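User: Please fill in residues for this 169-position structure.
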């Protein structure tokens, strides 16, 4: 489990941000196919959703974080696609907003924490975003969002959710 030099990037807590899901004023989610074009789809979904919420001015920062989280999720989702032809797409993007904050959360099929050691070494395909120095994508997430973290999925669901929070207003 060695330290891979990314301790500064360790999420503040392993769990959901300190928010009350019942107080969500709006939320939207989309399932993403396990293909790299999904990053573009995730950005389009984010653009449309933020436009509806009158948050288009935040699109650049949010889309950058969404792209990194989705790219990371796809890195885990792609290898499982072949022997797991279930109806449930392996990656889901959720956008949730409250009056003063926006959270984007991406679900993927891997239980490993983000930036886990060795994650990028044995990747079975090249990383199209060039973020394969595993820390770089998380560094961007850390820089552009106000806080971020992750938690394993409970129950029969496999995988984890990585989330990033943006303060609004």
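Assistant: Residues filled in for all 169 positions:
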């Amino acid at each position: 489990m060695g330290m891979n030099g990314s301790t500064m990037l360790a999420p503040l807590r392993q769990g959901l941000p300190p928010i009350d899901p019942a107080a969500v004023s709006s939320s939207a989610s989309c399932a993403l196919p396990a293909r790299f074009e999904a990053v573009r789809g995730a950005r389009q979904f984010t653009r449309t959703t933020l436009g509806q919420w009158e948050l288009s001015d935040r699109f650049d920062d949010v889309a950058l974080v969404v792209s990194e989280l989705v790219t990371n999720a796809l890195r885990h989702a792609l290898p499982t696609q072949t022997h797991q032809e279930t109806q449930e797409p392996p990656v889901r993007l959720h956008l949730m907003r409250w009056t003063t904050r926006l959270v984007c959360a991406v679900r993927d099929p891997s239980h490993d924490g983000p930036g886990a050691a060795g994650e990028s070494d044995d990747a079975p395909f090249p990383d199209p975003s060039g973020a394969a120095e595993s820390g770089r994508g998380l560094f961007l997430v850390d820089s552009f969002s106000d806080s971020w973290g992750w938690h394993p999925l409970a129950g029969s669901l496999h995988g984890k959710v990585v989330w990033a929070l943006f303060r609004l207003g």
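For context: Residues 1-14, 117-133 have pLDDT under 50 and may be disordered.
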